[in-house]
Amino acid sequence: MTQPTLAHATEFGRMYSRSLTSAPEVPSITTVIGQEPKDLTGWAGHLATTELVQDDRLTGAVGSASQLKTLARHASSAAERFRDAAARRGDRVHHYAEQVALRSLGGAHEAESARAVLTEHGESAFADRFDEWWQLYDVRPIAAEITVWNHAVGYAGTLDLVAEIAGRTCVIDFKTKGLDRRGRAKPLNESVVMQLVAGMQAEERLVDAQAGIWEPWTHGKESLLMAVAISEAEVVPVQASPDALKPHWHKFWALRQVWEHTRRTAEAGPALRPLPPPPAPAAARAAVGAPAPAGAGSPTDAVPPVTPRV
């Protein structure tokens, strides 16, 4: 997948700017969706355990605490390595899909070299299955890798493809998937509906990144929203159910508010500060012969009043 021109990595996640010379202003669609917590500890533990028991060095390390610690340390990062490898594979597959679309649009493309890269990594089957789907569905691209913006809610993102299929305009998101135990593509996560509906609700699309020129987004409300799972064995396209769009849009909106308030609390600085003890009562000071401190008042004077800012 091509790195979006106006996307920036920030301490608050990926954010988008309006031009190449302006600062990031709003979070990306995927950053907003990422505000939803996901418990991956079980998955990470399974990968770590699997890697450890399959490590050829395990037998020789038995009885050596230092060697076992080394193997355990290596296995503990199995989930991170798996995630990073899957992300790089996804980038290669997305890049190929984008180049096929550009080729169909008659523009400059790198479809052949993108396929060659997949072949170098033993991933040509992804390209084969994608090509089969492209022909079977008679995909007629309108635009590829489109950066869109929503001012009302405050977010931006880059859509994989807008195409015409069977006379319908489709907003399409590609997901690279591994295979399950049956050799079928693993199912898509329903969060992809939020991603699609956020694209549908865009207000503008990018025309010129250098100059910061945008135009109205015209492929929204009437478009069919499609997610396409691309695996080595098959391509599985699915439609976002029209009945699910409104609740998923509301969920996306709520997650956008979570992102905003998380950013505000972080920018407010430390939320906790040391609290000194209150001044000693006058009777206690007199008992030990201590002078009254200047400006001494009630114990509550040690804590300055704080007015919450909304």
From TrEMBL:
Annotated Low complexity bias: 282-297
Region feature (Disordered): 269-310
Domain of life according to the entry: Bacteria
Protein name in UniProt: PD-(D/E)XK nuclease superfamily protein
Organism, as annotated: Nesterenkonia xinjiangensis
